[in-house]
Amino acid sequence: MRVLVTGAAGFIGSHVALYLLARGDDVIGLDNLNAYYDPTLKQKRLERLQAYAAGTLNEEVYPDARGAAPVGRFDFVRADLADRETMADLFAREHIDRIVHLAAQAGVRYSLEDPFAYVDSNITGTLTILEGCRHHDIEHLVYASTSSVYGLNTKIPFDVMEPADHPVAFYGATKRANELMAHSYSHLFGIPTTGLRFFTVYGPWGRPDMALFKFTKAILAGEPIEVFNYGRHKRDFTYIDDIVRGVVAALDRVPDADPDWDGGHPRADSSSAPWRIYNIGNQRPVELMDYIALLEHELGRRAEKKMLPLQPGDVPDTYADVETLVADTGYRPATPVEEGVKRFVRWYRAYYGV
Fold first, then answer.
1. Model-wide pTM > 0.90
2. Which positions are catalytic?
3. Does residue 328 contact residue 269 with C-beta atoms inside 8 Å?
4. How far is CA 208 from CA 11, 115, 215, 325, 339, in A?
5. pLDDT tens digits, residue range 314-344?
């Protein structure tokens, strides 16, 4: 296939693009390389993709994806999703079979500072993708949603069959809007769409604004780490390789209309349109203090902890029920958090030479 991956210089996007290339798909990688965090890291991820496609990357990546097909071709497009004319030209110019839409303005807390950035990227940007699907017969759109849509929900584990209409952060609100926007396009134009609610993704080549990255940097520098909610958080930390395999499994399963869907008793994860929502997580929540202890063990250093209250927009616990994704795609997370943290620390030390 020829797959458009938006956010290809991002954490999840670069890994998904690598997996698709490894199995022989051609990838058009789109990113605007903004400065929300260090653009150098984004550029290094792109260089890794380009080297892999050229056969010059000196490391093994996703050996389970390799089949008889040669490594796919990678083309990079630097563009902003909110640029309607540029996006329309891209869809008209390129033959795109399927899309993995991962580009977004990320971050819960930053959405309190600059909400307009989330409208531009997450709302307008997703609309340009949906319009491209509408006018160019895209076979399947898979897009990133988030566990943040659950907001005030306290029923644990979070279940996609339950409503998710009370997000507490504007970031989560924009992602819930994406799910509803996708549904309208699936209903009106028959576009198969699948939304994936990610749960706290971590691993090599991760985002510097995420807890594991920030904690590692601070501990190695001998600086205190900020521990919110006094460490009483639980998070469904999900290793990047498990996420990638789940994303690709979802991409390969094009949804149909649910024949059993009943408007009188509607399920929240399916529809009479070709539209699906899934959780994608590890299904094993971990106490934040236990997560920090694992990191301290791998680094061989104790962290100085600055204990702080729950931050606006945060929720105390996340826990994914992934059984519908397992049933429909065979996806099953397989990486224990102990192993995932070890792999991250190994990568971090090698990348930064510390």
1. yes
2. 171
3. no
4. 10, 20, 10, 29, 20
5. 888 899 999 999 999 998 999 999 999 999 9
